[in-house]
Amino acid sequence: MYELLKRDGAARRGRLHTVHGVIETPVFMNVGTVAAIKGAVSTEDLEQIGTQVELSNTYHLHVRPGDQIIKKMGGLHRFMSWEKPILTDSGGFQVFSLAGLRRIKEEGVYFNSHIDGRKIFMGPEESMQIQSNLASTIAMAFDECPSSVADREYMERSVARTTRWLERCKKEMDRLNSLPDTINRHQMLFGINQGGVYEDIRILHAKEIASMDLDGYAVGGLAVGESHEEMYRILDAVVPQLPQEKPIYLMGVGTPANILEAVDRGVDFFDCVYPSRNGRHGHVYTKQGKRNLFNAKYEMDDRPIEEGCQCPACRRYSRSYIRHLLKAKEMLGMRLCVLHNLYFYNHLMEEIRQAIEEGNYKEYKKKTLEGLQGGK
Fold first, then answer.
1. What is the pTM of this model?
2. Segments forming the whole domain that contains residue 69
3. Strand segments (E) across the chain
4. Is 302 tagged catalytic?
5. Which residue in the list 45, 67, 89, 215 is annotated as catalytic?
6. Annotation: binding site
7. Annotated binding site for substrate
8. From 8, 45, 215, 271, active-site residue
9. Do 19 and 53 belong together in one domain?
10. Which pLDDT tens digit goes with each residue over 39-73?
11. Which intervals hold domain tRNA-guanine(15) transglycosylase-like (predicted)?
């Protein structure tokens, strides 16, 4: 159940009650694609840096180690020793971005594994079955994620098929949740809005899926090449058409600036690989912009990554030491940068929630965006 606590303009401060605990929103989900955050980050680390939700991927876990194995191990929560909520992406995006040869049919998608080339079929029912085996808190509907530059005719056909697939996902999820051997019989289902940068297609699709009374709604197919301005334009058009009494999730987004802008448009959930990916390359986020710790000016800098930050890296280590680790290709350097970045994102969301509660979100957003322009 989603509980709306406060509005500040379109920005929403909410609470999603789940079988694995309460999620305070707006929230950033820390991305652990294969049931682990890249950069040697443990579940104890996630607890320490204030992670609320961990996100894993259906396609990757189906390919390796296999969802049947995870089910036999007691589900994803037991498998990775994480008690808080988990959201699993449906695998749709990976099918369309990773798989080389693929054939899209009404029943689903035939493709080859990106690991060993073996033939795989995935449709709405298969995606729901895999996610049920994983026993995540929130399952995402199986959709097609068409190219943002697809022509109008293709986009209309694709979105209509995604709607039909969503109906099948809902029916299969209801069936799976009724089975006695299902690990999580309270698994939630979020539907996904598609339509590229075509406002009218997006709005029509939002209205269609809004009538299905799902547990939450996502906006997919953005941050895949279109400009930030186009993304914000689509959010302005689509978010008001989605059920306001349900959580709204912007998939795969994004930068701190993207998050601040999207919250201002009514978005509650976010995920992105940026904090961990950038961290592994020595790029760290601060309120004064992004820093590249490989820069020579940090060679003798004994300050923490960000002064005042309470993350495990900043409480103990200097920019100079972390730069040395990165240059020496020591894994600890990557790990400390990833921990800092994830802490930064999680703490940013805490500040966002507080600003909405206090009714000064516009002022907070303006001040934070100005600081982020720094870049060092």
1. 0.97
2. 2-272
3. 2-8, 11-18, 21-25, 27-31, 54-57, 86-89, 102-105, 108-112, 119-122, 138-140, 188-193, 216-219, 248-250, 269-271, 283-286, 289-292
4. no
5. 89
6. 89-93, 143, 194, 221, 309, 311, 314, 340
7. 89-93, 143, 194, 221
8. 271
9. yes
10. 999 999 999 999 999 999 999 999 999 999 999 99
11. 10-370
